[in-house]
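Ticket #4471: structure export looks truncated?
Reporter: QA, pipeline team
Priority: medium

Steps to reproduce: submit the single chain below to the structure queue and open the exported record.
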Amino acid sequence: MKFHTIPQEKFPLEVTSHVRMLGNYFFNLFLVIGQNKSALFEAGISGGVDCVIAQLNALGICPDYLVLSHPHSDHITGLAGLMAQFPRARVVMAKGANEFITHPKAGPLLVKEDFFMSKGLERMGITPGRPPLETIPDIHDALVVEEKKSLDLGGDIFLDLIKVEGHSPGNLIGFVKKDKTFFCSDSLGFHYPGRGFWPLFFTNAAAYVSTIDLIGSFNPQIICPAHQGPLIASNASKGLQDARDITHSTIQRIKKTSLSDEKLAQKMFKESYRDEFTLYTRENIFNCMQLLIKRARET
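Actual output as written to the record:
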């Protein structure tokens, strides 16, 4: 794996006067700071929790909201540690997130992936301050976003949350209108710095494209994926176009291939499983390739 593009000592990193990027280069969390309240968008993994807590302590902030972007392992397994540290914070999630993580098959897979990712961070010099997750967090009391929700943080700072489709069940994106800053999580794909995105239309390819277009309709000046740092100014518009292009080309590639689905999945796995993607298990990423093929064929 290549070296960190953003050194760990740069965190927390100022994105705007109201937004800080926390966590680490691989798993980004975004703190939105209003006059009266603050919200942390993303939860990351258990191996990054103690770094995030230390960064929040350095800023002198206890978040009022913990916003879950979606219930995949690299976005939810840090939530239990954050909830324990900030018990007064209100957890916010989209409809469908709790149903996803409470499925009988979900818990063991989340725990297994969190263990692998936390060990991967340790190999990269980011030492976890706690053991990997053992059980999935209990979020049944969370504030559920059915379609849209605006969090008033004070001082004309609002975090607008929108439930979207295409990538994951229970998927939220966020927007700070004052700064034209968008928190897209994985809704544009997996962010490879300098190489665009790898598409992640795991639930519905057409809905995934619609979500990209929705994000573009806000004309964001800053786009904050959940991995490998933000895209600013011209890089934001380029990132949106890159995400559209790779999504459409991947769908067409799958539909037009002469390869069997198994051989195509193997080929796509070899192309994608490098650098930052190797923080995830091989089994997970191969399953992702199979899922992309399935969803493209359904389009």
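Status: closed, not a bug. The export was complete when the record was re-opened. Leaving a note from the reviewer for reference: The mean pLDDT is 95.
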